[in-house]
Design brief:
Layout (H helix, E strand, L loop, with lengths): L6 H32 L2 H29 L1 H26 L6 H24 L1 H8 L3 H29 L2 H20 L18 H14 L1 H31 L3 H20 L1 H4 L5 H19 L5 H15 L2 H12 L5 H13 L2 H15 L1 H19 L21
Length: 415
């Protein structure tokens, strides 16, 4: 296989790396700006929640937009708008002063950044099967690399973001974030791939409402997709506050922005190793086994973090969480790619993502006040134990057995 046939896959992966790096920096910088004002975890939770509240609606809308207007066009537009929202922070600071950047303004800009990001991610993920066929890669191999790139971005993004906050400050760090989105735009602008342009009229949805409904109906009609979506919804609601509120609060109280970056990097390093190992793992380990192991281990590791042990122990537990969860998104992607028709792929990807994010804001808004009132250790434990319970319940769900019998009916054959 010639290297030129792998060009589209490399461009999509590079765009994923740079855009997700920008998102990773934002996840650290926005809550840190809020904490910098008065050290209140509630403010950080509001800003972090603002980045996730739009995700519920925007992921569903994004899937329909991708199928309606084309994957390449939506990716370009989403990255431009996300970059513009991030760049508004230093621009507003320069024009009207840093004191004017209050929690409400930060929440609004965080909401805009988070609201546009799913469209770009959905568009790029929807192009993976065609790019895999051009490169001669299997879906397992492609999904493994794609998820590894996402985790690499969350190594570079939060880690670099924490270091930049410590050296040049959170305001200037936002320029770096905007530049990352710009690199993604350049990569997708150079992309030429079948299926990336505007869809044929006959395969397009008849409108926004019907498109969204069709995607959600397809997910709900398949037992395995419905179960995966509900599990991801619950686990995300419980885990997201740990990463977005509790860790920033813990390290902000100690004035350790770099250490926050290390903790998030440990999560991403573990995820990178787990994702890269997925292609080999899938040959000998059932997908159901991997999912159950990840959920139970996540709950146990989070309970260990609730003890607030020394930093090296926290880093090890974070790495374990990332390691076991590395294969999960490739598994989800495989099920979608092998079950959803090509013309519905964007809508199904968007519907699954919206289920993931639906309960996130609730968890964030509960975790912030709980941490202020009861302490970080109690809050960590209150979030960890339900994850363990979900893992135990999942072992009894017959629908998850379909993970290991999903037919590759809609996957393009390698060239």
């Amino acid at each position: 296989m010639s290297s030129s046939s792998r060009g589209p896959a490399f461009l999509i992966l590079f765009a994923t790396l740079t855009a997700t790096t920008g998102t990773g920096i934002s996840l650290v910088a926005f809550p840190w700006l809020a904490l910098q004002r008065n050290g209140n975890a509630r403010d950080a939770a509001v800003v972090a929640a603002a980045m996730t509240v739009p995700l519920v609606v925007s992921t569903v809308v994004a899937g329909t937009a991708v199928d309606l207007f084309g994957r390449r066009r939506i990716s370009l537009g989403a990255d431009f708008l996300s970059g513009a929202a991030v760049a508004a922070v230093p621009l507003l600071t320069w024009s009207i002063g840093e004191n004017a950047i209050n929690v409400a303004v930060l929440a609004l800009l965080a909401a805009l950044t988070g609201g546009f990001d799913p469209a770009g991610m959905t568009a790029r993920q929807s192009m993976l099967p065609e790019s895999a066929a051009r490169a001669g890669w299997s879906l397992d191999h492609t999904n493994s690399i794609y998820e590894a790139v996402l985790n690499l971005a969350y190594i570079v993004g939060p880690g670099f973001g924490g270091l930049m906050i410590a050296t040049v400050g959170p305001i200037s760090t936002m320029w770096i974030t905007a530049g990352a989105f710009g690199l993604s735009i350049l990569a997708i602008a150079a992309l030429r791939l079948e299926g990336a342009g505007k869809p044929d009229h006959g395969s397009r949805t008849n409108g926004w409402v019907s498109g969204i409904t069709e995607g959600l109906r397809f997910v709900w009609s398949l037992r395995v997709l419905r179960t995966l979506g509900l599990i991801d919804l619950a686990v995300t609601a419980l885990y997201l506050p740990m990463e977005s509120v509790l860790f920033p609060k813990y390290f902000a109280d100690r004035r350790q922005p770099a250490e926050l970056g290390w903790a998030l990097m440990a999560l991403a390093v573990g995820g990178l190793v787990g994702a890269l190992g997925y292609a080999a793992l899938s040959k000998g380990v059932r997908r159901r086994t991997a999912l159950l192991t990840a959920t139970l281990t996540l709950g146990a590791a989070a309970a260990g973090i609730a003890l607030l042990p020394p930093l090296p122990v926290i880093l090890v537990l974070c790495a374990v969480i990332g390691l076991v969860y590395g294969p999960i998104q490739p598994i989800y992607a495989f099920v979608v790619q092998t079950r959803a028709p090509q013309h519905l792929r964007g809508r199904v990807v968007g519907a699954m993502a919206s289920l993931t994010y639906a309960a996130g804001p609730v968890g964030l808004l509960v975790a912030g006040p709980l941490a202020d009132a009861a302490g970080l250790g109690v809050t960590f434990l209150a979030l960890a134990l339900p994850i363990l319970l979900i893992g135990l319940i999942a072992t009894r769900l017959p629908s998850l057995r379909d993970l290991d019998s999903a037919p590759e009916l809609n996957a393009p054959s390698p060239l």
